[in-house]
What does this fold into?
Amino acid sequence: MRLQKPDTMKNAKYQPMIREYDAPASPTKFEGYWAGATIDVKWTVAIVSLLVALAGAGSVTAYIVTAYIMMDERPVIDPELRAMPSGGSARVLVELRARAADPSAVSDAQNEVLRRLAGTGARLARRYTTAPLLALEIDAAALARLEQMTDLVTRVRADRISTPSGPR
It folds into this structure.
């Protein structure tokens, strides 16, 4: 604050000259604008907090739903194969997750399944070129490994087609 000579004031030697930007703002100067702003800020903070909480809950929910869907995408195994004795074997048809219209995708899926079955008692009976299938003879260890291949196998069925034993 600075003092000036009185030009218009009588009987005063020096009066303080208060400029508008030096003076404290009066409580009524922006009252209409700022009074609502505090409520808006409170609501904005509340809404943003709620959205952040919902986004976090949404990602957890998405993770749970994805995990549940992945559990449901396990290969379907025929019940009679589960009853297979531990030392026995069974002939099965393995349905693969590959597009039948793409022969290279079918071949790649078949190769990957056979690669992952290495070290088990699985034996290739037939490889189909146009259908996403494999005919295998498997033991219990190979069945357990096929069941873990959620990315490649959709179903393992018992092969009920019997080959003729002799000429007719």
The chain has two domains: 13-72, 76-158. The two ends are 120 Å apart (CA to CA). The domain at 76-158 is CATH 3.30.70.80 (Alpha-Beta Plaits).
